[in-house]
């Protein structure tokens, strides 16, 4: 018989697992890893039509994508165009960024799998006498190691020609030049820290769902068990 067991610790672990997976996925897909040096907003003619000098903008560069602004003189407006600069994996600007993409993708795949499984831990707490919480915690720890490797390798690619075109001639491995780090990089770091927190917290979720109080509720014949 299936017993639905919900505790504060197990629910918190499930929510954190889902948040971490989405945070890492969004960061990976974003083009806001590097914020490039300021560039002029457009042509002098466009500035005259819009009634003055436009503020310079800063294009952004991701692992495989980029965002830049295109001037539409005929409409007197400017749009930001975002999309992948690499049509395939081999066109990613740096070998280090290719390795980063591989490690991050592996970590994110594990995190998404754990996030999916975590939803069902309310009904199923073990498989083949193995605690799902402990298995998921181990997988989250492995995913965290993949994410760390990817984040360590990423700055080594700042010396590639693509990064130099955005960050200036002084950009090199682990040196930003005229660029600054975007929100996606910080989100990836925060998600990595939370990944290890989830891995540790999975043990608390397992303890909460197998406590004596839960066993007492099961022995009383309850199918839905909610505990603080």
TrEMBL record:
Keywords: Fertilization, Membrane, Transmembrane, Transmembrane helix. GO terms for cellular component: membrane. It comes from the Eukaryota. The keyword 4Fe-4S does not apply. InterPro entries: LHFPL. The keyword Membrane applies. It is a multi-pass membrane protein. This is LHPL2 protein. It comes from Hypocryptadius cinnamomeus. The gene is Lhfpl2.
């Amino acid at each position: 018989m299936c017993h639905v067991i919900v505790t504060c610790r197990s629910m918190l672990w499930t929510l954190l697992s889902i948040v971490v997976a989405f945070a890492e996925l969004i960061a990976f897909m974003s083009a806001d890893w590097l914020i490039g040096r300021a560039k002029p907003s457009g042509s002098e003619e466009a500035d005259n039509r819009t009634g003055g000098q436009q503020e310079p903008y800063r294009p952004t560069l991701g692992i495989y994508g980029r965002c830049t602004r295109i001037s539409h003189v005929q409409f007197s407006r400017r749009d930001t165009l975002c999309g992948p600069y690499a049509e395939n994996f081999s066109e990613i600007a740096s070998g280090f960024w290719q390795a980063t993409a591989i490690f991050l993708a592996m970590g994110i795949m594990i995190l998404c799998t754990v996030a999916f499984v975590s939803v069902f831990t309310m009904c199923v707490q073990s498989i083949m006498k193995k605690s799902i919480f402990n298995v998921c915690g181990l997988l989250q720890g492995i995913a965290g190691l993949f994410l760390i490797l990817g984040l360590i390798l990423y700055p080594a690619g700042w010396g590639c020609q693509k990064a130099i075109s955005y960050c200036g001639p002084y950009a090199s491995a682990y040196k930003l030049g005229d660029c600054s780090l975007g929100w996606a990089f910080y989100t990836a770091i925060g998600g990595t820290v939370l990944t290890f927190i989830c891995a540790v917290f999975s043990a608390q979720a397992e303890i909460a769902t197998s406590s004596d109080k839960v066993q007492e509720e099961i022995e009383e014949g309850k199918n839905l068990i909610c505990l603080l």
